[in-house]
Amino acid sequence: MAKVKSNYRCSECQSVVPKWVGRCPDCDSWGSMTEVAVVAPVASRAGASLAKAGSSAVLPTTPATPLTQIDSTSTQAKPTGIGELDRVLGGGVVPGSVVLLAGEPGVGKSTLLLEVVYRWAMRSADDRALYVTGEESAGQVRLRADRTNSVHERMYLAAESDLATILGHIEQVKPTLVIVDSVQTMLAADVDGVVGGVTQVKAVTSALTSLAKASGIPVLLIGHVTKDGAVAGPRSLEHLVDVVLHFEGDKHSTLRMVRGVKNRFGAADEVGCFELSEQGINEISDPSGLFLHHREEAVEGTAVTVMMDGKRPLLGEVQALVAATPLPTPRRAVSGLDTARVAMVLAVLERRVGVSISKADVYAATVGGMRMTEPGADLALAIAVASAVKAKPVPKGLVILGEVGLAGEVRRVAGVNRRLIEAARLGFTSAIVPVDSGPNIPGMRVNEVANLAEALAYAGLMGGKQAPSRPKLTPVK
C-alpha cells in the first residue's frame, strides 16, 4: 500500500516544503508555491531485507580507472593570449572548464571577452571561437570589434538566446572556445520560469557545463551582479562552474581588475590589472606606478606603503591633510581607506604619541583610486597624518609597512619580503617595518620598529630612541 500526501513546490527554484507558505524560504518569491501530490510507499519487511542485502545496487557501465593511468596532459591550460587574464586563471583556459566572469554593467566584461575571442582565433588554423550574445545584436558586436580592432575570420558570432539553438550552433561551428554573453539572458524552452530567474539560470548553466565536460570545449560565461556586488542568481551557480572571476572597476577611472574568487585549477586570490580605453582594453603588467604620484620634492602629509592584493604586491601612496576648524565637531573625510581603521589610527596617534588632532579636520585618501583595506597600511597612514600635523615631509625613498595596535605597538604583516622586493625594484632605498619581519633585502636599509613612537622617530617626525637598523646590503651582480 502507498500513502498519498501533499507537498508544496516553488515554481521559481523548485524548492519543496511540507506546508504552504506565502513566500518561498529559498528564493524569496511571493505566491510561487503550488501543491504537488507525493506517493510515499510503505516499506515492508521483505523490502527492508532486500535493501540491507544490497540487491538494489547498479553495476557501472565504465569501471573505475586507476589514477596512474589517467592522462594529465589533456587538462593542461591553454593560454588565451592575454597575460593578465592567464595569470588569474592559473596559466590559461583548461579544456572542458566553465568560467564565470561577473561584474557591474559597463565595466568592460564584453570588451574583455571579445578580445579573448580575437586572441584565441589568432592562435592557429585549428582554433575557432564562437561568441554568443543575448543582449546585443550582431551589428552592435561588429561595431565594437571594429572599434577595438578585434576582427578575425575564425571568429563566429551568434545573436541567440534560445539554449537549443545555441547548442545547434556549437554542433555546426565546432569551436574550440565558446563565450556566452550573458547567462541571465539565455532561455531553456523546456524549463519553467522567466528569463534570468533562478530556475532558468541553473538549467542553462547546467546544460552548458555538461556540454563542456562531454566535449572538452571551454565555456566562458558572463554574469550580472546584484546591488551588493554578488553574482546574480542562486549561490549554486558558483558551485556549478570551475572558475569564478569578478571584474571590478570605478566608473571615474580607467583601471580595471579581474579578481579570482574560485579556481579549481590554480590560486583563488590572484589579481589581473587592465586599462579600459576607447580603443579597447589593454593589460597592465606593472601596475605599481599607477598608484604613486611622481614628484621631484617630498611633500608633507604623504607616505608610501605596499599592499598585497592577492599574491601581487602593489605600491600605493597615502595622503593626509590636517586643517584647523572652527566647528565644534571636526570633520573626518576618507577616500580609498577603511573609515573604521582611520578613526582607530587617529585615536592611537593622539593617545599614545601625543599628536594633537582632536580639534582639527582630517582628510585621508589614496592616489589613483586604489583601495587599501588591509591592516598593513595603518603605519603609513599614521606617519602621513603626523607628517601633515608637523608640516614636515617624510624622507624621500622611504616605504612604510605595519599594522598599528590600540596600545601603539606595530604588528607584523604577511608577505613583508615580497613587498620590500617590489619596493626595491621601483627604487626605494629604505623601509620601516615591524620587528622580526624577515631577511634583509639587497640595496635597501630596513629599520625595524616595535611601536609607533619609534616609527615616527625614524621618519624624523619626533625625537626618541631609535632601534638599531639592519645594514644596507649591496645588490649581487
TrEMBL record:
Motif position, RadA KNRFG motif: 262-266
One GO cellular component term noted in the UniProt record for this chain: cytosol
SMART domains in the cross-refs: AAA
SUPFAM superfamilies linked: P-loop containing nucleoside triphosphate hydrolases (SSF52540), Ribosomal protein S5 domain 2-like (SSF54211)
A GO molecular function held by the record: ATP binding
Pfam families in the record: AAA_25, ChlI, Zn_ribbon_LapB
DNA damage among keywords: yes
Region (Lon-protease-like): 361-477
Example GO biological process: recombinational repair
Residues involved in ATP binding: G103, E104, P105, G106, V107, G108, K109, S110
Domain RecA family profile: 74-225
Keywords assigned: ATP-binding, DNA damage, DNA repair, DNA-binding, Hydrolase, Metal-binding, Nucleotide-binding, Stress response, Zinc, Zinc-finger
Summary of the function given for this chain in its UniProt record: Plays a role in repairing double-strand DNA breaks, probably involving stabilizing or processing branched DNA or blocked replication forks. DNA-dependent ATPase involved in processing of recombination intermediates, plays a role in repairing DNA breaks. Stimulates the branch migration of RecA-mediated strand transfer reactions, allowing the 3' invading strand to extend heteroduplex DNA faster. Binds ssDNA in the presence of ADP but not other nucleotides, has ATPase activity that is stimulated by ssDNA and various branched DNA structures, but inhibited by SSB. Does not have RecA's homology-searching function.
Entry's family note: Belongs to the RecA family. RadA subfamily.
Free-text domain note: The middle region has homology to RecA with ATPase motifs including the RadA KNRFG motif, while the C-terminus is homologous to Lon protease.
Name of this protein: DNA repair protein RadA
Organism listed in the record: Rhodococcus qingshengii
Gene: radA
